[in-house]
């Protein structure tokens, strides 16, 4: 039983990380193993498995729509010349790629996360960094690791508000308390994310592969990290959990931009080791050739994205329209109650990204063929991702729905959680974040991880005698950290930068930061728990 439950973790790790298969092949084999064990060991009926596979296929389409929106936006902006103007703007702030990753991947990505969530930031910031000249692998790895701290508050607080909604004491008071506690614990982990992504950039993609290039940015990156996490704590206390990521990232963007322009706490040297070879030769020419497009016009599609995301999630009548006008959701698939897949088309970040690409043509006064050409190019780049995601989501949904079985046993996720709790009960403050990470690694969603495991975390905390809010906060933070390694996020991040088939290599570089994040918050909670 235990081996069958853990198959959803072991199989992808073996195929993608150890055997270095592409996600298209590795996740197909993993899905076959998990589905077979679900049928023969767990006692899932063929009808339930079929419904779960269809559910996964439907969810795959919803993710592909977001990927298409992210890729088509960038390809459209390349054709309009906006990307060149955006690059000039970044170069005017700093030509140092270590500074650029903090501003683009961490702070701008956190802003997108706070408004949209659901893997959108890495799909947006990854291509943007490639356009800046970063190697695709550097862009994918950094984008995934950077999209972590803000995930706890992503999509206007969804991981907290929805993820904890099935608890017996769920309500606004609990959500606000958890939001504050997450921000407090993240002071001891999220603060280091800017330096961590600089470290990954310089060590994995630098010429010297050493610490020195990263250490030069330690003062500035820690300063930016403290600005982000301390302002997150302040906003959580003053305003609640919904807008923490949005307000903290805006605060960080302002401070980081001003200090970078002034060279505050920054070295005099400029680091560009992660620049694509074919970009290096054209760098001087690009710098010399100034675009006539106003910077605000070039950035307008991204401003539109943030505005539309907030409008569709905050303004009641607009949110209602987005949720109901074009509803392509599937309910009780094949008649199996509880097996559903939601897709409100206009509420999807994909619709917002496509709308921003189309509106950019009007604002930047460019012909429609810029969009049609970008659409064809974008669709062709998504073939491998479609196959990889179909297998991945089939595995995820069978694993998640395994509680619907003929043997009347708990689901595979619950079985894993109870096994871990029985082994690590007294040390659970150290282990709680990793259960959250495990949930996100398999399901691909911090919110689903919290929905699945928060009741178990709550029960464990009560049994062992730990503060329930602390353990639930660790669950949410761990779920956020799991964003760095979950397979469908990695597939998405790799696809948008042209690295389909390299998913195992990406995970090998992001798994260390994910585990470190969980360890830091676990240690912080354990130490404070021991003191109190």
Key phrases:
532 residues, 25 helices, mainly alpha, globular
Describe this protein's structure.
It is globular, with a radius of gyration of 22 Å. The chain has helices at 2-18, 23-40, 46-80, 82-93, 97-115, 120-132, 136-146, 154-161, 172-186, 193-205, 212-215, 218-239, 244-262, 277-288, 295-314, 316-324, 349-363, 369-380, 383-400, 412-424, 428-443, 446-464, 468-481, 487-496, 503-531. The protein has 25 helices and no strands. It is mostly helical and 532 residues long. Helix 1 (2-18) packs across helix 25, helix 9 (172-186) crosses helix 23 and helix 15 packs antiparallel against helix 17 (349-363).
What is the structure about, briefly put?
By secondary structure, this protein is mostly helical.
Q: Name the shape in a single word.
A: globular
Number-wise, the strands total 0
Helix content: over 70%
Q: How much of the residues is beta strand, in percent?
A: under 5%
Strand/helix succession: HHHHHHHHHHHHHHHHHHHHHHHHH
| Biggest pleated sheet | none
- Over the alpha carbons, how many angstroms does the gyration radius reach? 22 Å
Query: What structural class should be given to the helix and strand makeup?
Result: mainly alpha
Mean pLDDT: 89
Low-confidence stretches: 284-288
Distance between the termini: 39 Å
Number of helices: 25
SSE diagram, text form:
Layout: H1 2-18, H2 23-40, H3 46-80, H4 82-93, H5 97-115, H6 120-132, H7 136-146, H8 154-161, H9 172-186, H10 193-205, H11 212-215, H12 218-239, H13 244-262, H14 277-288, H15 295-314, H16 316-324, H17 349-363, H18 369-380, H19 383-400, H20 412-424, H21 428-443, H22 446-464, H23 468-481, H24 487-496, H25 503-531
Helix pairs in contact: 1-2, 1-20, 1-25, 2-19, 3-6, 3-17, 3-18, 3-19, 4-15, 5-6, 5-8, 5-10, 5-13, 6-7, 6-24, 7-10, 7-24, 7-25, 9-12, 9-23, 10-12, 12-13, 15-16, 15-17, 19-24, 20-21, 20-22, 21-22, 21-23, 21-25, 22-23, 23-25
